[in-house]
Amino acid sequence: MMQFWTKNFFLLAFVNNIIVLGQEVSEIVDVDSSKWQKSLDGKQKLLVLFYQTENCESCTVALNVLNQIVGQPELPSDIQIGKSTDLSLAEQIKIVTFPSLVFLRDNSYAVYDDVFEIERMLEWIQLAAQKTTVELNDLSFEHLTQASTGATTGDWFVAFYKDSCDTVLPAIESLGVRVRNKMNVAKVNVAESPLLEERFKISKCPEIIYFKQGKMYRYDFPLQDVATFKSFIDGFYKNVKQEVVPTPKSKFDYLTEHIANLIKQQLNGENRTAFIAGAGGVAAVLFLLMFCCCCCRSSGGQSKKQKRD
């Protein structure tokens, strides 16, 4: 009898753990700044609906759809679903409209840009489950994009940014979800890639450039959202100036350019007269050496001719 109750006790405990685990996976958790940071540090997939509790009918609709999504087999197995009314967190990640659905994964997040319908949301979640934006730098840019040789790796929509203007990155990441498997979306931190900054004459922050078949088109519009980016890619880029993608400079190019810049600085500096005098002296010495060499060759030639005679 004791053995029977012991077996059943462990069986009940096992079943109870499964039920509790199922509840933990299927429930919607409240998300604040602490929870967000914990998921960010732990690289946990976190889907969060930011909403308001007052005067927001669309927020109520979005919450209802979110509840229907819970437990759907299409969801990634390692995702956690949450909701948040934390305005400080919303401000921190630049959420300004409500409701907004945000998907955090791989230390970056994408923002849902469609209507709150269960089928469309599930499709978007599956597309957004993995990070879509490629990080490029001085070393990897040309190898991955092949931009100056005709873009054989496809078209590239690239955001050049610094930490002071990184608010564009969520929209870039969200665009990557929308055009996944159709084209490439990337970002370049120009503070860490000075050669690319110089090569493409990056003069503002952020600077967004569309690379297509050996040509480049600068996105120079105030709106920086997924819909406007998508419209630009789909054909509006034809209305802006077309530029040839500059080829990357060689080490010799950088050396000669560096020498030319040094000369220019000296000519425009306080020691201009001394520099010109020194350069003139060097030129005179070189001229004398060349003259002496020519004279030696001439006299040597005459001596050989006299010997033959």
UniProtKB/TrEMBL annotation:
Signal peptide: 1-22
Keywords: Membrane, Signal, Transmembrane, Transmembrane helix
Keyword Signal on entry: yes
Organism of this sequence: Biomphalaria glabrata
A Pfam family this chain is assigned to: Thioredoxin
Domain Thioredoxin: 156-216
Name of the protein described by the UniProt record: Thioredoxin domain-containing protein
Record-linked InterPro entries: Thioredoxin-like_sf, Thioredoxin_domain
Spans traversing the lipid bilayer: 274-296
